[in-house]
Amino acid sequence: MSAIFSPAMKFTTWRKLWLALAAAEKDLGLEINDEQLQQMKDNLYNIDFAKAEEFESKFRHDVMGHVHAFGEVAEKAMPIIHLGATSCYVGDNTDIVQLKEALKLVQSKLVQTLGILKVFAEKYKDMPMLGFTHYQPAQLTTVGKRCTLWMQDLLMDYERVTHELENLPMRGVKGTTGTQATFLELFNGDHDKVKELNKKVCNLMGFDKWVSVSGQTYTRKIDYYVLSILSGIAQSAYKMCGDIRLLANLKEVEEPFAKNQIGSSAMAYKRNPMRSERVCSLARYVMTLPPSAANTHANQWFERTLDDSAIRRIVLPESFLAVDVILNLLVNIADGMVVWPNVVSKHVMEELPFMATEVILMECVKAGGDRQELHEAIRVHSMAAGAVVKGEGKPNDLMERIAKDPLFSAVHSKLDTLVDPKLFIGRSKEQVEEFMAEDINPILAKESKHLEKKVVDGVNV
To answer: Is 265 known to be catalytic?
Structure first.
């Protein structure tokens, strides 16, 4: 990601845009020769940044600084570099190219994250786990089913990224205020050639879509859409890692922890969820950025004002760089998550007796018991068991109380089977299987090339 937003990427793309423009202008009849184009092609990556900075300091203009730096190494082409263009021709179109390449990288890492989480979800698809609403114990779920909630959010993010990639338009060749007046002059009033010039340049740069109309810049609404997608990814990551941090406190699920890792300089026993905390910290920053893009778009007066420039140079690269790190961390966390089955089971069994009472009630009624009498007995036993748990700090003894009460003799012989946690997970296992088959596997098959890529980004904690 750093390479995508590097000066080298930015300014070589400027040169590619100048070459594409000159090549298209030559094809459409302007007096540009092959030698000029060849010199430009031969020097796309031959950038003397010090010289460009020197020219920029002289002219107080970054684009003209690089026009002259390019012209020094492509001398024959100097007279036709930037012919008919405005600064936003290279500036805005390069921004779009960078956004496209950055979105591709984000898409790839989303697929890798989904692929790793799939393995985890399938492994634990039928392991009962306490569900929570209001952060209070509720009906059981499974470790794998909870993981699918994280995956569903990331899948939606993948779909948004994919849609944006398929529809992201280039600014194209639009001129100073978007009217293409200079190019119309260059081609002696030939509107068809001006339209063809725009198409040729966009195609040469790898785009088959472009904004139909513009002012000097492409509409800054595109930036808002892109930052909103990145904010969505940050939200998904925060939700996932927030859950992991809570699970770590319960000692049920933990992120990877290196053999020699130190959790606290003072408290040697600590295992802090530092990776997840870092994700949440970065995600909180990314989620603040869409309003910046919204304000930038809303405050563009008429065809363009320059107060969009400085802030975009900050928020566009930083948002992608932050999301890139977030996804690196998600891959690392998902690939090494640790589940502690005995702790998970202990917490389930502490709450399950209360959940099992409805099943016990129905079984006793089917055996001829009085529903109202049984209901009252369960209520009394449940309150007493709750008092033991909360008031005395002892284990839940509700099943022992029911086992000793003759009112429930119809189920005494099968109490153990009635409180099997797997009877209370509903369709969790089946939902995991269906989600993988119907939603995840088709995406992973379609995007298999991303799963084959080696992750080279390191994670330092």
So the answer is: no
